[in-house]
Amino acid sequence: MTTPSENPVDLDRQGPEAEIAARAEAFRNWGRWGQDDVLGTLNHITPAHRVAAAALVREGRVISLAQSFDTNGPQKGWRRRTNPVHTMTDTGTDAERGNQGFPHGIGGADDVISMPLQCSTQWDGLGHIFDHGNAWNGRRAGDVVTSEGDLVTGIEHAASVIVSRGVLLDVGRHLAGGELADGYAITVADLEATAAAQDVTVGTGDIVLVRTGQLTRARREGWGDYAGGAAPGLSLTTAGWLHRTDIAAIATDTWGFEVRPNEFDVPAFQPLHQVVIPNLGLTIGEMWDLDELGAACAASGRYDFLLSAAPLPITGAVGSPLNPVAIL
User: Fold this and answer.
1) Pfam families, from UniProt (predicted)?
2) Which residues are CB-neighbours of 146 under 8 A, at least 6 positions away?
């Protein structure tokens, strides 16, 4: 079988089905970790990887990589994705008035939040995307995700797993001095050139963070079409790199991880998702805030760190909000 090209120029821009299928077949990991596997490439993270990653902590500095979870977020209602709605159910006013029913003057505050699980910084779980009705590891999509949730690969299985060496590839800074233009397709050559310029390696068990700079621009100019519109992102042709590096997971500072518009002249939607989630078993993060981390790494010249990015153990969920932290 011919290995698919890693040069975007070689893509048949009229043939998304064939281009997706070629990469799905070439890089499929079904059965690699057994027929009952629920973690996919997260299996690359071992206790030894975590021990080695812990040794990267030198300053004790912790940087949150999460965007805010509030009504000022980027969501516009596409596919019923809205920004979080935060409501107080008990307040200080209630406590002052003594109407909470508590004894000896104690009062309190309580609140509730309503939000789609993928409205801000989040992981895409393995049950999020299917390829021709197939879910991760060759299971039928309808056997995996039903109205009761993801019965097989729910995000709760990863709750104690995603702690490893993090590697920032600040492609926006390396290629464009800070921010890639919307619609820029990041290639394998771009990823490798950035790693070389930063003097950092990418390998087994790593969690790779790709900073494009789009979030920086959105904060400066307004959300606009950040959620669902044009964006820099990974080219479909990076699928082979994502496979052969044996990384555990990858995240970006954009809404959709891959370049948008996608790289075809006919209708296509998130082809790289279709290859890497159900076929490679790759966990993908989106809408991460990589700006402070990018500045810190540029200042220190160090681009690897301990990364903790546990999802909420929401039973049967196909994605999860999170507050990932880089520990330098």
Assistant:
1) Cyclase (PF04199)
2) none
b/e map 170-195, b = 16+ CB within 10 Å: bbbbbbeebbbebebbbbbebbeebb
Predicted TM-score of the model (pTM): 0.97
Distance of alpha carbon 224 from alpha carbon 74, whole angstroms: 8
SS3 66: strand
Q: Are 108 and 223 within one domain?
A: no
DSSP run (H or E) holding 64: strand 62-64
- Please give the full DSSP string across 170-205, using - where no structure is assigned: -HHHHHHTT-PPTT-EE-HHHHHHHHHHHT----TT
Is 104 a residue whose pLDDT tops 80? yes
C-beta of residue 309 within 8 angstroms of C-beta of residue 160: no
Q: What's 21's DSSP letter?
A: H
Domain that holds residue 110: 82-114
Residue 320 β-bridge partners: 123
Task: Based on the fold, state whether residues 246 and 170 are members of the same structural domain.
Answer: yes
| Contact in structure between 202 and 195 (CB atoms under 8 Å) | yes
CA distance 310 to 119: 17
Tell me the pLDDT tens digit for each residue of 166-194.
999 999 999 999 999 999 999 999 999 99
